[in-house]
Amino acid sequence: MSTYHIPVLLRESVEGLSINAGGVYVDATFGGGGHSVEILEKMSTGQLFAFDQDEAAAANLPDDSRFFFIQGNFRYLKNYLKYYGIDAIDGLLADLGVSSHHFDTPERGFTYRTNAALDMRMNRKASRTAEIVINEYDSDKLTGIFRNYGELQHAHRLTSAIIQERRKQKITTTEQLISCIEPHIPRQAENQYLSKVFQAIRIEVNQELESLEELLEAASGMLKTGGRLVIISYHSLEDRLVKNYMRWGNTREQPAKDLYGNSFEPFRIITRKPISADEEEIRNNPRARSARLRIAEKQ
Known about the structure:
- By secondary structure, this protein is α/β, with parallel strands linked by helices.
- The protein has helices at 10-16, 34-41, 77-83, 100-103, 130-136, 139-148, 155-168, 174-181, 190-206, 208-222, 236-248, 279-284; strands at 24-27, 47-51, 67-70, 89-95, 223-233, 256-257, 263-264, 267-269, 292-298.
């Protein structure tokens, strides 16, 4: 499992669930199964439902009668669990973003470090690819993606370079994409800049922020009183959504209100500041450097 994906903040996140040995839990991002195995270790009876939309994750399933794997997007959490007769859960853990497996499989197109087809789909059955985004989106939509999802200045310059290139030939590989935007890449921050470019495209391809909002809303509705919401995020866009939802019960940075206009806080915040990986974990797993763990309890 560790060769597929090294679980980040494993001890801290599983402890954050405050597991009831006979409870019902969700691992919304199964991946290599590291978090799921640790959760199962702390359960006696109970049930663990794990989600992953990538068919490759199915190779890592534990042989355990308490474990149920759902190959699907966690945004449909409520519908899938309803199929199993589950209408309430004791806790949910999500380790967001891209797994080590995705980055380490060059042909998936998630990294700028190797030349590959512009794909970036977490679900390989999905119709939207990075190639479609780059070649078919209009100027305003592309600029918005780079500005909003990559938080890139002068996003219009990237869009202009891409549109000029695709008029000459279709952009089908990561190498072509990097080549056409090369004049706009800061010389002293190439890796950071390209990471943001690829992040922006990946978020759009997989509709990551919309899916996260739907997951948070579904989890909030299904968590029992005292149930825990445990989320690991890797960039400010995700972390902001999680922080706002845990604080306000929505992602709009304003209090949730009842039918009478009274403000209420659906969660008790367990982590006033997000938990980060320590130096030892970062040495062993450099991808843990940007991880931020937040925990909240349903009131």
